[in-house]
Amino acid sequence: MFIALFGAVESGIIYAIMALGVYLTFRVLDFPDLTVDGSFVTGAAVASISIMNGVPPILATLFAAIAGFLAGCITGSLHAKGNINALLSGILMMIALYSINLRIMGQPTLSLLQESTVFKQLESIWSATGIDGLLNGMLASFGMEQLPSTWGILFVMIVATMLIKLLTDYYLKTEIGLALRATGDNQRMIRSLSANTDLLIITGVGISNALVALSGALIAQHGGFADVGMGIGMIIIGLASVIIGEALFGTKTIVWTTLAVIGGAVIYRMVVTMALRVEFLETGDMKLITALLVIAALVAPKVMRARKEKLRRKRKRAELSGTKAKGVV
């Protein structure tokens, strides 16, 4: 169980980068971007084919993020310059990316098992530190038998994801970031202040898909393969992470909300991992589990608010009844 949850946290922290991208379009820009299902694979495809052609893994991962940014910019341009509905723009780009990804990969699946990846290089460096032996020795003293082969991926990805989170926070507090947030709230008002909302939308959707593609590139290197169908339903996973994080941790400030999104991504992977260990559930039920999680995250806060409001009114009525009774006496 510990190993399963460890793996869930490890992959969850990588998927959190994708969730931050979805947060930018879904919450900040109020843009229903379905490009995510395609740009996630674009990141995996570009990174994989680059690595297989001898490009250093770090540089290949950077290429993946750039490809995702370009895909997002095209989606944003279709909406802002082509006056195509935001939802339809994302669907069109998602469909187009399926063929583009196949062209990039040359075949439906690419294996990276024999290639040098970011995580293989990281593991070789991390093993020299001796931290794995120290941590696993401590866990073994508590009677744990199954232990992680390396802690390096988890620690380094936590640092990398938090760095991306801090950069996102900083960007959203800059003058352009504030204009981006305002565009999501009231585009017409921002346009009346002479702001170039088209450029803001194109840039925002581009940055969002750059993060999604970066996550796709890392997931491909973590899993050891890239598949043209690995992006199906990714937008739902991203939305689930955002909604679960917001429901559990709140949305007081931008800094807190982005942290909540990361937490939501990790918790989502942990819940799915535990759900799949239930005997009557199978791997094919993951989409159903995701849908049920999103429904629960959407409905639960409303039910809790309604219950609190009901209790508040009940207390108010009781106070008024008590006041009237004292007045009669």
Automatic annotation (TrEMBL):
GO CC terms in record: plasma membrane
Primary subcellular site in the record, as a coarse category: membrane
GO MF term list: transmembrane transporter activity
Topological relation to the membrane, as annotated: Multi-pass membrane protein
Pfam families: BPD_transp_2
Ranges annotated as spanning the membrane: 12-29, 58-78, 84-104, 150-172, 199-222, 228-249, 256-276, 288-306
InterPro entries: ABC_transp_permease
Localization, UniProt: Cell membrane
Key words of the record: Cell membrane, Membrane, Transmembrane, Transmembrane helix
Protein origin, superkingdom: Bacteria
PANTHER family in the record: ABC TRANSPORTER PERMEASE PROTEIN YPHD-RELATED-RELATED, BRANCHED-CHAIN AMINO ACID TRANSPORT SYSTEM, PERMEASE PROTEIN
Protein name: ABC transporter permease
The species this protein was found in: Lentibacillus cibarius
Classification lineage: Bacteria, Bacillati, Bacillota, Bacilli, Bacillales
